[in-house]
Amino acid sequence: MSVSPKWIFARALACGFCVVTGGAQASSDGSTTSKPAAIPSCGPHQLDGIPASDEVLAHRQFELPTLSYAGDSGPTHWNVPLTLLVDASGRVACRSMGSDFSERRALNHTRRELLRAMTGWRYRPFLVDGKPASVVIRETVAEQRVPLVHQPLPEVSPAQVTISLSRGGCFGMCPGYEVSIHGNGQVDYQGGGYADVQGKHRYQISPEEVAALVERARRVDLWSMSTSYRAPITDNSTYVLTLKMGRLTHEIEDYVGRMVGMPAAVGEFENEVDRVGRTSEWIHLSLAAVERLQSENFDFTSQEGADTLARAVANDGSTDEAALLRMIDLGTPVKGGDAVRPPRGAPMPTESTLLNVALVHHRVALIDPLVAQGLLNTGGLLDKHKLDLAFQDAVRGGRLAAVQKIWNAGGGEVHPSLRLEDEDEDGERATPKRVPVTLLLSRSYRDVHWEGQAIAEWLAAKGCDLKAQAADGDTLLHRAVEAGDIAFVRYLLLHGLNASTAGRYGLPALGSAQNEDIALLLLKAGSSWQMNDGGAGFRRYAEEQHWTRVLAYLNQHTGEASRKQGSGSTF
Question: Which residues are CB-contacts of 347 (< 8 A; sequence separation ≥ 6)?
């Protein structure tokens, strides 16, 4: 819902704090109808259901509101996490107002209005086994503190305008950079750590785009915002938004500001600065950035060129493979580049060559040109050891096409080994064990295109044993469960893998299940669930995840008449 700053200020002055949506409805004769009853708290057992968090956005048929407070008013702990029971028709039946970091949310007038507004929330019915069913979902309603006093954006000529945004590093792989957009359309970008293109670069955009950005700053009233929004946490990025209008400057510091009531408009404007300033083209190497580098007479054959290519190949966020191929065509060295970027949620490559990094990061399009540049050779001849390591990284990368390309890289005369030496790195004894390469399969974080099952089937046809155990005891079933791939889990069970086989730490694959359907499939396949604590931990986890079907199965198969009582409402 879009609301003008003037309306917010008027409402804020009148009531001290307000909610953007909800409340009494005006009738045609000017009177107001009575407010709907608030959505009730869920009682014990009502939040038993099937989690559907990944599907919530697709099923939501309304826009989540933002709760607004004026001036210094507002809650002690910001934003409202909700656990909702949605019935088969898509209406909210009851709610539990949860907490983040163990901090409870106290009710106030604004939040009570939210509970009334929730009566109008509608979701497209969730289907279970093809039929509409009640489900448990989670939502978070944002809260913001809007300025009490309006400070107009200074009127200056375009030549006196500079809008800058800097994003600092974090305890992780956050790209650091700064972009400054000037009124005449000139843009100055400086890339730092974890940005693909680093250093200073200058380019031009249209002055009309800058004028539209200034108008947006005026419309959302940025000049009235506080100068700092800092959350009391650590290890995150600091963003600094600076508006320079002639001799006047307004700076807004954003350190996870949405946790402390920073208006949504600030974060949205930061993103707009990125869009207008084209920063993503440099942070994640793009063909447009390569072309600009060419116009700057950038030396692609230099060490800086090699480092830029290496960073981009290792950056999962950089998806423009045409840019990577263009870099190689322009003579960028494929050896000696320093990525300084560990893979996100994926195993480290066996070797640091650009080919091995490309394989781990699913860069199928780069395989042929990098092989053609001799990255599998030593002294001009195919190196079997390099071929074996590349094959292992192709399996890790989770793309069947990459596995097949490396398998055939020897021209049909030499093939990589289907087995490798494995060690239990977490065990007391690091005893090497010869295992099939299938056990290298591991789904990297948010890899929606992972082809674990297809690779396993292909390798099995080549002679790999699907039932083999790694040195730490894990099986391919453990890998499939960790990946959340129910089709792969079902395939392995059909091929005779034992659901109760103890893996790392003596746990069956069920110990890694994060999906109720997978957990139930394993239980029905005979998996042990007692584990190392008599099953108390698994039962508690199932209760916390609202796995009704799993709990019913446990109760049925242990003779329990009822499960533990829930705590009911948070309030």
Answer: 360, 396, 440, 442
The CATH number assigned to the domain holding 455 equals: 1.25.40.20
CB-based contact 42:568 (threshold 8 Å): yes
Q: Which residue has the tokens 């299938």?
A: 438
Same domain, 66 and 187: no
CA 43/CA 342 separation, integer angstroms:
46
Domain with 499, as residue range(s), is: 443-528
Of 229, 216, 214, the residue nearest 147 (C-alpha): 229
Evaluated on CA atoms 285, 290, 296, 302, the torsion sign reads positive
352-364: pLDDT as tens digits? 899 999 999 999 9
Q: How many CB atoms lie within 10 A of CB 38?
A: 18
Could you tell me which of 422, 419, 398, 418 has the C-alpha nearest to residue 470? 422
- Let me know if residue 473 belongs to a domain: yes
In angstroms, rounded to a whole number, what is the distance separating the alpha carbons of residues 331 and 341? 23
Q: How far apart are CA 353 and CA 211, in angstroms?
A: 46
Region of poorest pLDDT, from 129-133, 269-273, 396-400, 459-463: 129-133
pTM of the model: 0.84
The whole-angstrom separation of Cα 369 and Cα 365 is 8
Together in a domain, 136 and 172: no
Same domain, 131 and 200: no
